[in-house]
Design brief:
By secondary structure, this protein is α/β, with parallel strands linked by helices. It has a single domain, classed as Rossmann fold, CATH 3.40.50. Strands 5-2-1-6-7-8 form a 6-stranded parallel β-sheet, sandwiched between helices. β7, α8 and β8 form a beta-alpha-beta unit. α7 packs parallel to α8.
Length: about 230
């Protein structure tokens, strides 16, 4: 896991602005879901085309968290990235043509094919867990996935965000969730980026403007789960 914390100057800024660090004093487990972003081979596997090595270090914290949430009937939703590709054309060409290097483009496209997406093998998936595919960084941006509809149908108004990368897909999803009036908690020990600096920067963005930042233990305490 990343061994970083929000910088004191950011804490001071937050306290001066709203008088407390955390957004939420209490979380309702009956209205909460855990949303785990992009924990799949492309990002988790050693040597994967978009490997985030630290993602493997958050497997145990995520597994511990899901074991405690499932008995409380908190939905566990695995959000996996997938892009379709047909006749040489991708459904996200601006990304693959401008962000992905030539030497890894075909391998990345192949690894993100919709039909092959599975939750990373070291994660524990329950029989009642839900899997959702997305095709953009944010699972909430229009046309990306059915995540918002799934959450609304479940009566969820609070999302705990875990997964990778902290500063890309997790942060994008968290920002849009807040804009859609969900309560957002980014789990600092259950998210992973390519560097400590990127991870910390994302947590600081979230806590200032888009939601709360807690460890999984702190979130469980707010949920009243021991």
């Amino acid at each position: 896991m990343h061994n970083v914390s929000i910088r004191p100057e950011i804490v001071e800024r937050v306290l001066a602005r709203r008088g407390r660090l955390h957004w939420f004093d209490r979380l309702n487990p009956g209205c909460t879901a855990l949303v785990v972003i992009d924990m799949q081979n492309t990002f988790c596997a050693p040597g994967g085309p978009a490997e985030v090595a630290v993602s493997r270090a958050i497997v145990d914290p995520i597994n511990r968290l899901t074991r405690l949430l499932r008995p409380q009937r908190v939905p566990i939703i695995w959000v996996l990235h997938a892009n379709s590709h047909h006749a040489g054309r991708s459904d996200w060409e601006i990304f693959f043509d401008n962000v992905v290097a030539d030497e890894t483009r075909s391998r990345t496209i192949e690894s993100l094919a919709p039909g092959v997406q599975r939750v990373w093998e070291e994660l524990e998936v329950g029989v009642d867990d839900i899997t959702v595919l997305k095709n953009r960084y944010s699972a909430f941006v229009s046309g990306s996935s059915c995540l918002e509809r799934v959450l609304r149908n479940l009566g969820v108004d609070t999302v705990l965000i875990a997964g990778t990368k902290t500063n890309i897909c997790c942060e994008s999803t968290a920002r849009d969730a807040m804009m859609l009036d969900f309560k957002v908690v980014m789990l600092s020990d259950c998210t992973a980026a390519l560097s400590d600096e990127e991870h910390r920067s994302s947590l600081e963005n979230i806590i200032q403007q888009f939601g709360d930042v807690m460890t999984s233990g702190e979130a469980l305490e707010k949920l009243g789960i021991r």
